[in-house]
Amino acid sequence: MEPVGSKVSIVGAGAVGMAIAYAALIRGVARTVALMDVNAEKVAAEVLDLSHGLEFVSRASVIGGANPAVCAGSDVIVFTAGAKQRPGQSRLELAEATIELTRTALPPIVAAAPQARIVMVTNPVDIITYAALKFTGLPRNQLFGSGTVLDSSRLRFLVSEHCRVAVQNVHAYIAGEHGDSEIPLWSSATIGGVPLLDWESLRGGELLDADARAHIHSEVVGSAYRIIEGKGATNYAIGLASTRIVEAILNDEHRVLPVSALIDEDIHGISDVCLSLPTVVDAAGAGQRLPIAMSADELAGLRASAQTLREMQARFGL
Predict the structure, then answer these.
(1) Rounded to an integer, what distance in angstroms lies between the CA atom of residue 119 and that of residue 129?
(2) Rounded to the nearest 10 degrees, how much is the dihedral formed by the CA atoms of 96, 85, 117, 236?
(3) 217 labelled ligand-binding
(4) HSE (CB half, 13 Å, CA atoms) of 138?
(5) 83 assigned binding-site residue
(6) Does 244 count as an annotated binding residue?
């Protein structure tokens, strides 16, 4: 399933954009990786740096520039441009400046590559994705956000550490906002086919009781803030997570990922908001959502998360 001839463009040559570019090259995702940023000098330097390592990866080329034309012919565009999150600053507080940047920057990019599937990564990703849909008029399958793919990976890692099993055998999702109101879907989570709520300790691991689950949830929500405080930005894990979404599109994988897509119909009493639910991702982009079972508490949490996002949308006139 080698994506021969495919092109991935990354808008924004900051820490996140470059982590995605690096991960895409290492994983051999596309034949062409294009970088776009208003800082043409930085783009040129990043292209040169990556190009010097092409001997050691699958056959590819790296190009870049400050003009949206560099994105022409893209199969997938990953949008990372935006304001940088400061220590202690919530994702939603980033919204105003980034919405305006998206309003001006994204339409010319879409004009250059009208058939590309667009993955929004810029935070606050749910709000920015909703705004981008408004500004471009693209359908929900073609433009969607990275959502809680990274948060779900954090959740699975913490569960695997607690239970002493391989992270690949943990199946659990974070739903709702990519942010403080996100919720873990414990009732549908499993470890190797065993319902997580029935899990007992294994090889000295601890029981995953209510207190442990609450602690893990808190760790998932707070992890980005701790990373930002310590090093200024989160970039490696979101680079890998975003690249995994790109692979699912280019390889038409029909992979279930909790991406943030517009709810344009009534789902659990929620509509007209972008948030994350387990969704089939394939060559067309964000497809069908899974009718995943939720407890009453989880459903209430999902609705509260949607309300948080709706209030933010209204605050910015979206």
Answers:
(1) 9
(2) 180
(3) no
(4) 29
(5) yes
(6) no
For residues 305, 236, 154, 277, the Cα torsion angle rounded to the nearest 10 degrees is 40
Rounded distance, CA 24 to CA 4, Å?
A: 13
Q: And the tokens for 137?
A: 């008029």
User: Could you say which architecture CATH assigns to the domain 149-315?
Assistant: Alpha-Beta Complex (3.90)
Residue 221, classed as helix, strand or coil, is helix
Q: Where are the domains of the chain?
A: 7-145, 149-315
φ and ψ of 194, to 5 deg: -90, 125
Q: Which pTM was predicted?
A: 0.93
Backbone angles phi, psi at 138, to 5 degrees: -75, 155
178 is catalytic: yes
Q: Going by CATH, does the domain composed of 7-145 fall within 3.40.50.720?
A: yes
**Helix/strand/coil for 161:** helix
What is the chain's Cα-based Rg? 19
pLDDT, tens digit (0-9, with 9 covering 90-100), for 178-215: 988 999 999 999 999 889 888 876 655 567 888 999 99
Q: Is 125 assigned a ligand-binding role in the annotation?
A: yes
Q: Which tokens go with 309?
A: 């996002």
Choice among 178, 215, 217, 254 that is catalytic: 178
Summarize pLDDT for 129-165 with one digit per residue, the tens: 999 999 999 999 999 999 999 999 999 999 999 988 9
How far is residue 188's CA from residue 294's CA, in Å, rounded to a whole number? Answer: 7
Distance of alpha carbon 312 from alpha carbon 300, whole angstroms: 19
Residue 129 is assigned to a ligand binding site:
no
Answer yes or no: are the C-beta atoms of 182 and 155 closer than 8 Å: no
Whole-Å CA distances, 92 to 217, 221, 263, 293: 19, 14, 19, 28
Rounded distance between C-alpha atoms, residue 295 and residue 1, angstroms? 38
